[in-house]
Amino acid sequence: MEEAGKISRYLYTVIVLFLIWLFLTASTDPQELVMGVIFSLLIAAFAYPIFTTRGLANLHPKRVAYAIAYIPYFLWAMIMANLDVAYRVLHPKRPIRPGIVHCKTVLKTNPGKLALANSITLTPGTITLDVDDDNYFIHWIWVPDEVLRAESDEEHVERASSNITAPFEKFLKVIFG
Amino acid sequence: MNVLAAIGEILVFIGTFFYFLSALGLIRMPDVYNRMQTSTKSATLGSLGVMIGVGLWALGSDFGSVAWLTKTVVIATFLLLTNPISAHALIRAAYKRGIPLWHGSVVDKYHEYIESKAEKAESVEGEGDAE
């Protein structure tokens, strides 16, 4: 992945910090805004090397649009996950069949992998145990038959990935590249 | 009492219900991995519901202002981004420490992967010695 210039990364950090300041103060009083800009500029000077590697390219309209579309999609998956967990906890027989499965991802960047791992943890029945390059090890609360009966390792990986990582990848591929 | 306050109250109620489920999951699940599953998911959505609910509730009351909602949104986003990471760190530490899976577990690909990796490293080392 190519790295953006220092100025672009710095400006991106300032914008994100200032947005957080706006939300936290929730006022458009000029005094507050000036103070926010000053602090954003100051903190960004220290923090930009560790904050982003791609700078203003993160604000590409297509990426922002996909990110906004991803929010309701993700929240819906999360609510379904919780109903699923509620069913498993409240059911008298406690229907769980846990196991650790192996998935692969097509994402290349580190922020993308982090977002995918977080999304996996918060959605139905899965929690990320370890990430190694493009290998994901996922603790699944109910391993379905089709994954369990896979004969070879490749088949197992393919079926597990299409179940767990694929639904998010189509969004995250665009957002994080 | 208006619509916003009513929505907020309902959200807080739902969030509390998920908190309850999270605690119940801790009691009912058999091993640390399954407990992580239930507690992380339910506690995150429960907190989200309670926080956003409080923001909306305050917006609908006499004393409230927009500042309530924006602050709760920031806190909720922060929690949503950090909670899964802490869960991941905890479950990974548990696995590395050697805490066994529940006897009812069906597959453990991670164990196979670590073993095959260790074997590979060993064989590479062995070749180096032979040369």
Task: Characterise this structure.
Chain B: Pfam families: PhaG_MnhG_YufB. Chain B: Keywords: Membrane, Transmembrane, Transmembrane helix. Chain B: This is Membrane bound oxidoreductase, MbxC subunit (MbxC). Chain B: It comes from Thermococcus gammatolerans (strain DSM 15229 / JCM 11827 / EJ3). The complex is a heterodimer of chains A (177) and B (131). Chain A is mainly alpha-helical and 177 residues long. Chain A has 2 domains: 6-59; 61-176, no CATH class. In chain A, 63% of the residues lie in helices and 11% in strands. Chain A contains 7 helices and 3 strands. Chain A has helices at residues 6-25, 30-51, 61-90, 110-122, 145-148, 153-164, 166-176, and strands spanning 99-104, 126-132, 135-140. A 3-stranded antiparallel beta sheet of chain A has the order 1-3-2. In chain A, strand 2 (126-132) and strand 3 (135-140) form a beta hairpin. In chain A, helix 1 (6-25) crosses helix 2 (30-51), helix 3 runs antiparallel to helix 7 and helix 4 packs antiparallel against helix 7. The mean pLDDT of chain A is 82. Chain B is an all-alpha fold and 131 residues long. Chain B contains 4 helices and no strands. Chain B is elongated. The interface between A and B is large, with 41 and 46 residues.
Low-confidence stretches of chain A: none
Radius of gyration of chain B: 23 Å
Rounded to the nearest angstrom, the distance between the terminal CA atoms of chain B is 82 Å
Percent helix range of chain B: over 70%
The tally of helices of chain B reads 4
Number of domains of chain B: 1
> What is the strand tally of chain A?
3
Structural class of chain B: mainly alpha
Quaternary structure classification: heterodimer
Biggest sheet of chain B, open or closed, and with what strands and sense? none
Tell me the β content of chain B.
Answer: under 5%
What is the H/E string of chain B? Answer: HHHH
Distance between the termini of chain A: 9 Å
- C-alpha Rg of chain A, in Å? 20 Å
* DSSP helical segment count of chain A: 7
Biggest sheet record of chain A: 3 strands, antiparallel
Overall geometry of chain B: elongated
Strand fraction of chain A: 5-15%
